[in-house]
Design goal:
Three copies of one chain form a homotrimer.
Chain A (H helix, E strand, L loop, with lengths): L4 H11 L1 E2 L2 E4 L5 E17 L2 E8 L7 E5 L3 E8 L8 E2 L18 E7 L4 E6 L5 H6 L3 E7 L8 E10 L9 E4 L5 H4 L2 E4 L3 E8 L7 E5 L4 E5 L9 E3 L1 E4 L4 E7 L4 E6 L3 H5 L3 E7 L1
Parallel strand pairs in A: 1-5, 3-6, 5-10, 11-14, 13-21
Antiparallel strand pairs in A: 2-3, 3-4, 6-8, 7-9, 9-10, 11-12, 14-19, 15-18, 15-20, 16-17, 16-19, 20-21
Bound molecules: copper (II) ion (CU) (6 copies), sodium ion (6 copies) and zinc ion (ZN) (9 copies).
């Protein structure tokens, strides 16, 4: 398979964590500054298929915003597109910072809040019509690490989404990280025995749920991951409605190619399918 | 926004708990008597939109039946409508009291059982065609308080539902407590720092799930709430299929308007959206 | 109701656990040999309704494969049908044994792996088009008992499924164990006070979820059942997306007929409905 631009972006999204530009405030708090730009962006969502999307920073999903609980998150949002947009972060913050207010074309707004609670969150545009603003591509993952870091792991970022190409309110293409069958063509390399941690969210519009199924193995699932004493679910199949998200911890016991996909056959066959390749 | 009758009922449903008429049985048990009447009722489900519903006691959702574990619940059900109906309660009781038996137009039946288990339940009509009898509006919440009361809280009752206006088997209007955008027009007032407890159920017909998402905050979610030692999920988004229900515990950390809505964009934009307004 | 062949098979599937042919390997491991044959099979799915299915061993769902954690499971799969097929087991095994490889018409393949983890799993064909190969009927339950057995119980096997009769990608008939209203006609007999354990899975194609609701009672739900220390959910209604499964533990407190069904009205009314009959 040709390593097209869309495919490159999907692979990059797996491990590209945007920690912002770090500084320290007078009170000792860590401040993280991020730049987010909404833009009209044609993205490649499968070999030869372009989607007339709206994006944060040029990709669908947008950048994975990452920080540590207690950090000051400061997101300078500039609307470089032709429609009003915003950024709605999940998690705790002042309701003034919740992205309900539209930021007009050419305008900017700075979202600022202390990051909490530790866990796996998401962000997305919150301007009506909401189905359109989300479906067009304005979403991404938002990870708040606990102050006491999670165990070291091979960490991966995944966003489940869909694309409605003919505007009938139903998706024809489903992906993880924006590109159909990305990790079928380029399996995700992991090491046998290492801890693999997946930050997974569902931003699929139109369909009521999406899901993640792993072959030949099981994983621990922490919904949101905000409760440090929560007991994970041990399974190989979880479902999420839009806006739900969680943390998967997986150990691959032997070498080989482990398929993963939605356990809705339709979604899997329309692109939401890939492989982990475990090497000794 | 004009405080129409439908809107008034939605607001009232938030805090109207029907504890019945209380008496004590010879054996010392508390008996609670409730009157429930099925009727054909045109209800206002949004500004200027009427729905030709079937209701218990004139409202959709019906009254919130509330009692304490171990109480004798005695519901005198009179069918004042033109179709056979019944009341099916969730929870434990004799299968003779489960509402499978139709109560003919003009007839009555007394449902009597000891309330258990403590937790958040629902009731609805169980006469076929079931999709029609539920969709028309014959449902409500049924709360059984534990003998050792839950912590004091500002308690709220919410039922998620939908309305199919053109009889195509799909909903065009979605609400919480029966009236579209009720709590957008009239935000639910809460106090900063107080414990807010929401008894939430999904009685939406036709759609496979519904969901509750809170802005700028998180909550603890107890599914059903029948296990006193259950560890809640800490999240801002939960989903329920029809008949599922649970208890949310929320504390608002600072003043402001906190949006809540289904995280299905369609449902939110068709009416299932509101605000908590937290005041210092 | 006439005890037709389809109905007989649904009843049989409740308690038919296939433990295979047992032998002991040189290293002392228990080996269980199973024979699975894919075939084109017309099955009766409701009184007078035939479905042109694909089956394992002649029934939809296929046999319930059962073993104990640590056993060597050896499944000789022969494809006696006119299409390529496979068996994909959930659970842990070598990815070489995951059923991605098609087994051609007239060919055979032996799936061999050590059974783990203990819990409730499923199997199904994994040949594209996946929606078709699953929907046609190639699926069943796969139970791995823990080495320390679960508490003795009256054990029952249930698979939720659906049938698309007019090939429009939507189901017209829903069942548990393959036959519409099977356990309405023939209620499942249980004893008051005994522990009833249900191994329940969802293999319904096309619909995003399915669910199980019990009348007049509650149950404990263990998702997958792979975590021996997991705290069950106490409820009367659970949902599963395709591929999800779990273990229900129920005690019926008094004699009577306890209805159970999907809490999607449509599914219940199209066949996914039955009764437990508890006897003193
Ligand atoms: Cu699979
Ligand atoms: Cu959201
Ligand atoms: Cu939101
Ligand atoms: Cu119900
Ligand atoms: Cu019911
Ligand atoms: Cu599967
Ligand atoms: Na479409
Ligand atoms: Na689709
Ligand atoms: Na409609
Ligand atoms: Na709708
Ligand atoms: Na069909
Ligand atoms: Na259907
Ligand atoms: Zn937008
Ligand atoms: Zn698969
Ligand atoms: Zn699998
Ligand atoms: Zn009715
Ligand atoms: Zn929102
Ligand atoms: Zn939010
Ligand atoms: Zn097949
Ligand atoms: Zn029922
Ligand atoms: Zn019930």
């Amino acid at each position: 398979t040709e390593l097209t631009n869309g495919l490159k972006e999907a692979i990059k999204a797996l491990t590209a964590f945007n920690y912002g530009t770090v500084s320290t405030r007078a009170d000792g708090k860590t401040v993280r500054d991020y730049e987010m730009i909404a833009m009209d962006t044609e993205v490649e969502i499968a070999k030869g298929i372009k989607f007339p999307g709206w994006s944060y920073n040029g990709t669908i999903p947008g950048p994975t915003i990452r920080c540590t609980e207690g950090d000051i998150v400061r997101v300078r949002f500039w609307n470089g597109s032709t429609h009003p947009h915003s950024i709605h972060f999940h998690g705790i913050h002042s309701p003034k910072m919740d992205g309900l207010e539209p930021v007009a074309s050419g305008e900017e707004f700075i979202y600022e809040f202390e990051a909490k609670p530790a866990g796996m969150h998401v962000y997305h545009c919150h301007i009506p019509p909401l189905a359109k603003h989300i479906h067009k591509g304005l979403y991404g993952n938002f990870i708040i690490d606990p102050k006491i870091p999670r165990k070291p792991a091979h960490e991966l970022n995944m966003v489940m989404n869909g694309y409605d190409l003919d505007l009938d309110g139903a998706n024809e293409v489903y992906t993880v990280n924006g590109y159909a069958f990305a990790f079928q063509a380029y399996p995700i390399e992991v090491k046998v025995g290492e801890l693999v941690r997946v930050y997974l969210s569902n931003l699929t519009e139109f369909d009521l749920i999406n899901s993640f199924h792993l072959h030949a193995n099981i994983f621990k699932y922490y919904e949101v991951g905000a409760d440090p004493d929560a007991r994970p679910i041990v399974t190989d199949t979880i479902m999420q409605c839009q806006g739900q998200r969680g943390i998967l911890e997986i150990v691959f016991p032997e070498p080989g190619k482990y398929m993963f996909h939605a356990h809705q056959s339709e979604f899997a066959e329309l692109g939401w399918m890939g492989f982990f390749e475990a090497k000794a």
